[in-house]
């Protein structure tokens, strides 16, 4: 008997829902996808695709959409009200909802959401202020609006539970670190799980034997060393702030920098709420930094294609930081690397970024085929490496919604 899964991905400026029809234990089949974008830059827009055909694209919403919860309400109404989406004629036909939750703390696998799970995740909101609280608001909405559906939390951090202790440990007082759960967790793990499986299949290797340096590059960006199919190291840390810079995130900086930046950094931000406490320091580094601080725009396409000095600075800085992680992970994997993999919105779309990065790490044996690099993505994984090069270079069209639905379809306990 087929089941219907909603796979919800709530980002800082958008919410996406993919609808899958699933036979338990089989590969999910997508029947629809709807996205509300522009939550931080009004007006919000709706894009809706049913059975591979675009029903609406970037349609401005007449209703006011201020939050991820508002966006979810619009998306659910769009799906249920569509009489041509035969799989969902009412809320009761949705069997399972899987939610992307950025920070899962010590959870090393997906969790069926109970009152206890929900309360535990609320305590982690401060560690992922741009994501967790908004995702949990949607979880709460699902519990109210879809009472017959089961809700599952899929964590961006769970893929990184395999990181060795000597890599995930911070050199601080061990008792304080244990008491407050202060260690490297890592994020973008749902994407990296998809990248690992898809790349291994492309290379004809067992996923448990593949070694990769994977780059998830978007408005939030990270790098990951994958050893024998498992996370060995990743650039993000206790929170998603560490590592590579992003659209509004600083990435790793001297820890004392923020205290020289402003005098009120230890105080709570005016945007803090009863449920979510954000200091001015966190607000500055998460929301007022990155390439927006350098260029005035969060659109990396504009940055990559401009000759303006401030744009070139942001581009070169990003390339430099990415290459630093590639070099570090290449050494950490002892040079045993099956492929360098680009993914994420920027990683998949910016051929000039890929060219610049691969050119800088050419000393490690990576090289790029310019024709392949400039070609349109038509497959899940495409080879853009130069023939005869010592190392492979690939692009992967990652799909976090599918990965969540797939993992839930294979968990038979969820369907008992």
TrEMBL record:
<feature type="binding site">
    <location>
        <position position="100"/>
    </location>
    <ligand>
        <name>substrate</name>
    </ligand>
</feature>
<keyword id="KW-0460">Magnesium</keyword>
<keyword id="KW-0479">Metal-binding</keyword>
<feature type="binding site">
    <location>
        <position position="9"/>
    </location>
    <ligand>
        <name>Mg(2+)</name>
    </ligand>
</feature>
<dbReference type="GO" id="GO:0005524">
    <property type="term" value="F:ATP binding"/>
</dbReference>
<dbReference type="InterPro" id="IPR023865">
    <property type="entry name" value="Aliphatic_acid_kinase_CS"/>
</dbReference>
<comment type="pathway">
    <text>Metabolic intermediate biosynthesis; acetyl-CoA biosynthesis; acetyl-CoA from acetate: step 1/2.</text>
</comment>
<feature type="binding site">
    <location>
        <begin position="216"/>
        <end position="220"/>
    </location>
    <ligand>
        <name>ATP</name>
    </ligand>
</feature>
<feature type="active site" description="Proton donor/acceptor">
    <location>
        <position position="156"/>
    </location>
</feature>
<keyword id="KW-0547">Nucleotide-binding</keyword>
<dbReference type="InterPro" id="IPR004372">
    <property type="entry name" value="Ac/propionate_kinase"/>
</dbReference>
<dbReference type="InterPro" id="IPR000890">
    <property type="entry name" value="Aliphatic_acid_kin_short-chain"/>
</dbReference>
<dbReference type="Pfam" id="PF00871">
    <property type="entry name" value="Acetate_kinase"/>
</dbReference>
<dbReference type="GO" id="GO:0000287">
    <property type="term" value="F:magnesium ion binding"/>
</dbReference>
<dbReference type="InterPro" id="IPR043129">
    <property type="entry name" value="ATPase_NBD"/>
</dbReference>
<feature type="site" description="Transition state stabilizer">
    <location>
        <position position="249"/>
    </location>
</feature>
<feature type="site" description="Transition state stabilizer">
    <location>
        <position position="188"/>
    </location>
</feature>
<feature type="binding site">
    <location>
        <position position="400"/>
    </location>
    <ligand>
        <name>Mg(2+)</name>
    </ligand>
</feature>
<protein>
    <recommendedName>
        <fullName>Probable acetate kinase</fullName>
        <ecNumber>2.7.2.1</ecNumber>
    </recommendedName>
</protein>
<comment type="similarity">
    <text>Belongs to the acetokinase family.</text>
</comment>
<keyword id="KW-0067">ATP-binding</keyword>
<dbReference type="GO" id="GO:0006083">
    <property type="term" value="P:acetate metabolic process"/>
</dbReference>
<dbReference type="GO" id="GO:0008776">
    <property type="term" value="F:acetate kinase activity"/>
</dbReference>
<keyword id="KW-0808">Transferase</keyword>
<dbReference type="GO" id="GO:0006085">
    <property type="term" value="P:acetyl-CoA biosynthetic process"/>
</dbReference>
<keyword id="KW-0418">Kinase</keyword>
<feature type="binding site">
    <location>
        <position position="16"/>
    </location>
    <ligand>
        <name>ATP</name>
    </ligand>
</feature>
